[in-house]
Amino acid sequence: MATEETLVLVKPDGVARGLTGEILRRIEAKGYSLVDIKLVEPSRDLLARHYAEHEGKPFYEPLLEFMLSGPVVAIRVAGNRVIEGFRALAGTTDPTTAAPGTIRGDLGRDWGLAVQQNLVHGSDSPESAARELEIWF
Ligand code: DAT
Ligand code: MG
Questions:
Q1: Which of 42, 44, 77, 107 has the fewest Cβ atoms surrounding its Cβ within 10 A?
Q2: Alpha-carbon distances, residue 100 vs 27, 86, 88, 91, 119 (angstroms)
Q3: Is the distance from CB of 59 to CB of 115 less than 8 angstroms?
Q4: Does residue 121 have its Cβ closer than 6 Å to ligand 1?
Q5: With contact defined as beta carbons under 8 Å apart, do 8 and 122 qualify?
Q6: Which of 114, 19, 113 is CA-nearest to residue 72?
Q7: Is the beta carbon of 63 within 6 A of some atom in ligand 1?
Q8: Which residues contribute to the annotated binding site for ATP?
Q9: So what's the ipTM on this one?
Q10: What pTM does this model have?
Q11: For 102-133, what is each residue's pLDDT tens digit?
Q12: What is the CA radius of gyration of the chain?
């Protein structure tokens, strides 16, 4: 697979906790390239487009409310197999059981809320990456 790009978001919990630098450090230490980066206060409409696949699920409204709760850092990251590579760095969705060594496993936990506050988003396929990068950049 040739060099590809993915969308990484540092979610509002990551920004509020001052973990943006630590998350960027892990991406750079892995050897991926930061192509573009910005601090965003996303609109509800932008988030609805981003999370369209989850509309109707029980966590959808809490997810949008959470993502509207503060600024987000959007990053365009490049590298060979970076889409699956960043998903591996991030760890699985639930931070309680995400493997130690991953961003979610090392830095995240369950706060007893209706939505998983798990610090980061990473695109899950080439199609998602293209769609999401178009939305955020
Ligand atoms: P991921 O972010 O690992 O790709 P996803 O796309 O399935 O996970 O879900 C998007 C976000 O929604 C996820 O980061 C946290 C939240 N979420 C997913 N499943 C959830 C659940 N069962 N309960 C609470 N929040 C959930
Ligand atoms: Mg996802």
A1: 44
A2: 16, 15, 11, 8, 15
A3: yes
A4: yes
A5: yes
A6: 19
A7: yes
A8: 11, 59, 87, 93, 104, 118
A9: 0.98
A10: 0.98
A11: 999 999 999 999 999 999 999 999 999 999 99
A12: 14
